[in-house]
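TICKET #2291
ISSUE: user wants both folds in one file
ATTACHMENT 1:
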Amino acid sequence: MDMDLRKIKILQAIISDYISTAEPVGSRTIAKKYDLGISSATIRNEMSDLEDMGYLEQPHSSAGRKPSDKGYRLYVDKIMEVSTLSYEDQVFIKNQLLDSALVEVDKLIKQSLSILSDLTKLTCIAKGPSVSKWSIKSIQLMSVNKNEVLLIIITNSGIIKHNLIRLSKGLENEKIIKLNNILNARLKNLSIEQINLKVINLLRNDLRGYEDLFDEIIPSLYESLTEEDSSEVYMEGTSNIFNYPEYNDIKKAKDFLSLLDDKDKIGEILKNDENVTIKIGNENGLDSAKNCSIITAHYSIGGKPLGSIGVIGPTRMPYSKILSIMSKVVSEIDENIGRNYLDDR
């Protein structure tokens, strides 16, 4: 059976109604509420065809039908148009992030999640930026006592790492200033991937006579800038899902709570190779997420993805509205990161 325009309009009407009401939709409802110019009997026949095609499901003990995962997928990919975010919501998002005077990216992401949760009324998740994706903004040695210095590494994310280094001989302030200049000249603006053998050998030559310092600095840099798996997972609005009637079902509620409780699974959900992904129901590949849709998007610096932010909700979530909200939030995150951590490089 072909998916003709009439079937598409009926499917769109059913999805729109079901998103709003969470109630299975009957042919009479579609005939009354949506001006499709066809009779209830014709709509009923078309709905039966759509069910045979796998786009609709008929719940037990109900005369109405609801969209299947396949129906939502067709809607998201081919039918839906992303709505325009209201001017008020655009201003709210921008002002909330500007007013926060956020210096560190993890705080920016937490605030963004709070905004996203407020506007979508759903559970929002994010993974903080991986340190390995950042470059060195500055390196400083500070004297602690005669034979100890503090190595302070500041990345262009605002993240600060520090290690205590013990030396065989003391360093005077003038030598510390000189060493700081050498370290910054060689390492500033480099990511861990760029600190290759050539850079290390040049630094070794520059630090001739300070071999014990060199031997401590390189491992400290690698330790500080390769914490790929230590990126934190953040959540907001974890209880929002219970405002949706489908989660009055105790099994669905338990599955959802089990999903949120597993940070490894959330971390996997937030890994994606595309700018925006929408996974619906069983597409998530997790039993605990089979009744959920999950939308994720990258946030970036200079076009380079740093981490992901996402929304989890029932499969009947208002996809169009949520995509418009997420798009604006991610745009503001990218702008904030670029303004604070890229412009002054």
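ATTACHMENT 2:
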Amino acid sequence: MNDPKNTAFVLTALNVLEKREAGMPEVGAGDVLIKLEAVGVCGSDVHYYQHGVVGDFKVTFPFILGHECAGTVVEVGAGVRGVHVGDRVAVEPGVPCGKCEMCRTGHYNLCPDVKFLATPPYDGCLMEYLAFPAEYVYKLPENMTAEMGALVEPTAIGMNAALTGGVKTGDTVVIFGAGCIGLVSLLAAKAAGAARAVVVDLLPLRLAKALELGADAVVDSSQADLDERLRQACEGRGADVVLDCAGVNPTIRAAVQIARPAAAIVIVGMGANEISGVPLGPISTKELRITSLFRYKNLYPRTIAAIASGKLDVSGIVSKRFAFDETPEAFASAANDAANTVKNMICY
């Protein structure tokens, strides 16, 4: 490499991103150096950008955002096997400790000491070069673009949602929320065999996108009589699986109502820290199984294979594309123009 320079976009205050010089990352044993080519703007990134906090995680300025990324390997560290210079790769952004009880019992996504990109205190990937452990870097097939590689991260959450809910051939699935996670959950549910997928949202653009991506029916949650319109959309049968990608009082309450007896409800998104007004009677009398998920584990290879095969067609997810130097515009758009945004992608 001919003395490359690394620049990053740094969050220096709420709603303020500044381009700054960043030192070239050190490539340690077991690491690879990636020249990044695409970074997706996630909802958590936008929340940090606007509020500086997500749940218990609080930003200390300056801070670098971004965790959905892909690029090309330009250097490999000592001991790296299976990843080579020139490989185009997607990055699984969380590196667990590998030693705790959660890691040792196969739940590495729940590792309390995970180092996750753009989750304080760890900086993210909104830079030109990123050094990362090769163990969590996955080669992309020739037919996948860097943009598709950056979409592997949210799509893995959608895959996890369908798997956690146990979606099977012939099921009716209701999905609350038609942002990026709701839409990739829709794709995953249909790929798993759902016969009917109903998507609920209040933004017309997102409802239209859900239909474009294969939803069998959509329901506008801003209108009255949500329960009845949901029942009609499910053809009077109710839902075998509900994937709540919004996670607020109205959606969780409606999920309990539309779920069939013995159905599964998966809380995928967390739009509120607390819920109230959720009826317990139907949960008991219908023997509903309510569960949740946190990110994903062991799903990157399967997600990449599903995208490459065309079983999960993510090509319609991105709504707006921005150059690297337009990163501030990409975040401002996501934060202030949600009605016209599903997923913003920064393309280098």
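RESOLUTION: both attachments delivered.
EXTRA DETAIL ON ATTACHMENT 2: The first strand starts at residue 6 and ends at 13.
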